[in-house]
Each structure stands twice: as C-alpha cells, then as structure tokens.
Amino acid sequence: MKSIRFCVITILLFLLAMSGCKKGDNPLSTRENIPSYLTGQVIDSQGKPVEGCGVHYIYSMTTSSLAKTVKTCPSTNIQFNIPTRSKVTIKIFRWYTRDTIATLVDDTLDAGSHMVTFNAAKVTNGIYIYHLKVDTLIQELHMSLLVDDISALVNTNPLVTTNVSGSFNLPYGIFGFGMPFARTSASGSSLDSVYVSHTIQIILYKSGYLTTTKTITIDETNGMIQTFTLTKQ
Known about the structure:
The chain has 233 residues and is an all-beta fold. The protein has one helix and 17 strands. The model is unreliable at 1-32 and 64-72 (pLDDT under 50).
C-alpha cells in the first residue's frame, strides 16, 4: 500500500505582535477579482454526463528548486503568541472563495505561546488562507498545500464535484496563478520567491471509473471549456 504524502510547500509559523496587526488586513486581496472560469464537462465513454465526479488538481511553481524546501507531513503545526488573555479564533479558508475548511481554535486563551495542528488528511490541493483573530484584531496569511501522489489526492475532499449534467465551473482566482511564495534556506534566511504556475494537471475521480488526468495551461484573459472522459473499470 502506498503511503499518503502531504507536501506542505509553505508551513506557516506565525508570531503575533499586537502592535503589528491590522483589522481586516489581507495583503493578497488585490488578486481576488478574476472573472474568467475553467468550465468542464465530464462524460463517460458513451457520451453520457457523469454526476458526482470529484475534481482535484496538481500545480507547480515557476522555480523547480522549490523541491528542496518541500516537507512531507500529514499535518501542519501553527505557532502563535498572544500578549494578554484574549478571545482567539483560527480558521483555514480556501483562497479566493473563502470557504471555511477548518476551525482550529475558537476559545479564550491565556497570554503566552500556543500551538495548534492543522490536519490536512482530507484537504485537497490548493492555496489556503490562515485567518487569525485575536479579540477584534485580524491577521491573514496564505499557505500552499500540494499532494503529488494521485492515489492519495483522490481520497481527499475534492475542490468541486460535477453536477447532474456532468459540469463544473472553477474561477481562475481559486488557483492563485502568479501568487508569490517566499523560499527560505534551512537556516530560515530568505532566498527568493517562487510563483504558482499557469500549467496545472486536472485530476478527475469517481468510484467505479478509472482516474482521468489532463494537463492544461490557463490563459487568465480568456475562459476555457474542457471535456473529460471517464472510463468504467
């Protein structure tokens, strides 16, 4: 049996300084107005639509040396400090749509250092937002989750599932194309930045069918329509 590999490209270790927080601050919000969509239809070998097919994707970064910093783990530990006893909420959102993926903390905590674990065992590939709220102050950072083992990926919760007509729509913004991620050395010093590539591999899975993959390159200035065919096992 293959082991499940969860490769968290950017692991967030966030140290909260109250003087540095800004209410509602999201440094990446300028990329959240992308209107174009990837529209897909999934059919079987007879041309009939396949409902309930899970859609995943595998992406890459523009600098291949990113592989040197990838860590393999089933979960991510997030550390943070608070200076006084405060009401703390930590949530993980999906980038762009801001769907809530997990609520990690929703409690009043004492001052000091704290750590919480984000278990990514059922989370599909993508860009996610780490949302920390301490009383009325909010800080948001982004992180990248990449599972490169397709057999493991299809067992996570899909990005979207096809409807009764076998169709799905994904706004380009959800992929985070061109989004920068800082690359650091083993000592923690900054090396350079890498960017989410426009070339992605779409993964389609439904029980009873063979997994289908297709590599596409997205042009953000235009919508894209793709047809995918699933073959029964």
